[in-house]
From TrEMBL, chains A, B:
Residue segments, region Disordered: 204-228
Domain of life from the UniProt record: Bacteria
Gene3D superfamilies: Electron Transport, Fmn-binding Protein, Chain A
UniProt-recorded name of the protein: Nitroimidazol reductase NimA-like FMN-containing flavoprotein (Pyridoxamine 5'-phosphate oxidase superfamily)
Record field: compositional bias (Basic and acidic residues): 215-228
Species this protein is from: Prauserella shujinwangii
Length: 228, 228
């Protein structure tokens, strides 16, 4: 159990705009990271910025990322390149009376730092499990375990959550006073919900096989619901 | 009307892994970009990679991004810094019989290049409209127009879709032949659906005001449904 520490912004993790949307509470950082499914990992590769979606999971103040040893961006990150990991949850479209005050409701966590390639066997197993439990809780116990060859083909990275920022826009539309007073256009929020649908068994799964609870229980639930 | 050209991959837009997931059809690039709502814009800012969610819209082979003139990342992009713009749509969690073959269904478009600050008044208006029509179709006609002060406070960037890649994973789980033959674990896809919810009027909108069709018609529909 990690004791939560407040966010300690450095210049690059200090918001320069819409500071009212900055959140300085580490618990909110955890909530956003735990509610997302994929992050966007950005780094410089051969001199160009590259941003790719990546699976991740959090354990305390460590974010684990994983992927194939063949992935160029993970290889570069494993060498200690500076990275930015961003998790964005879109919660709604904000319609204001003025076009200029149209906006989006969202929760966004941004983590800066240098990742560490996890090479110790125990921590690598742990990191894999953290990512697996994040994306598909229950699979670690249910599915066929990772074998040594598969284990060797996976890269696990660890990124400390020391330097992070969280930005949240929630609530309804905001308009200029004159638009509130005299405007006639509709204003409001059109929520965006991301939910799990109905499980679709693979063709090689016998028809009488029940969908296991760790999958079936997610059906119809919001993706950002707390994991079991 | 722009005539579609096939994707012309350069080294940085050529997939090095899972090449079977690469899509070389420009129409698919358009579909993914048109289906998303926010992109992730990555660039180097003060020596560090920064990845932030950003609104965008597409017109032919031009991607328009917009934001406040105060946003540091847009200012940097406007100077001609190399950027990577990524749009990811998550379509499902793939449960395989083996942990190692767990995956995600997704559609992901990645655009590399250097953005151009749109300074000409006509094109800037056009870019704003393209972004507005992408995020909230109908608002351009319905809401109070952008005034000169607001117009001046917005940065519009244009990014050519010359160098892009698209990666798609769809369909059901795949497993090793021995797991297909002898495994007992459940395998399948748990779809992820992103849908618009019920419009929530702002408190300053009179109760009897009907929700206009351009908002009401989106309620309950998938976010990635084709725009009207």
């Amino acid at each position: 159990m990690t004791i939560a520490r407040p966010l300690s912004p450095t210049p690059r993790s200090t918001l320069t705009r819409k500071k009212n949307r900055a959140v300085l509470d580490r618990e909110v950082l955890y909530e956003v990271l735990d509610a997302g499914l994929v992050c966007h990992l950005g780094l410089l590769l051969d001199g160009s910025p590259v941003v790719l979606p990546t699976g991740y999971g959090r354990d305390g103040d460590t974010l684990y990322l994983h992927g194939s040893t063949g992935a160029g961006n993970l290889r570069e990150a494993a060498k200690g390149a500076g990275v930015c990991v961003t998790v964005t949850l879109l919660d709604g479209i904000v319609y204001a009376r003025s076009l200029n005050n149209h906006s989006m409701n969202y929760r966004c966590a941004v983590v800066h730092g240098r990742a560490r390639a996890v090479t110790g066997e125990d921590e690598k197993w742990h990191g894999l499990r953290v990512v697996s439990d994040h994306l598909s809780p229950g699979s670690w116990e249910h599915a066929r375990a990772v074998n040594p060859k598969e284990f060797a083909s996976v890269t696990v990275l660890a990124l400390d959550l020391a330097e992070a920022s969280v930005k949240v826009r929630a609530g309804n539309a905001g308009d200029e006073p004159e638009d509130v007073a005299h405007g006639t256009a509709w204003a409001g929020v059109l929520p965006v919900h991301t939910v799990f649908g109905t499980p679709e068994p693979a063709p090689y799964v016998p028809g009488e096989t029940p969908v296991p609870a760790h999958v079936a229980d997610r059906a119809g639930k919001p993706v950002d619901a707390p994991r079991e």
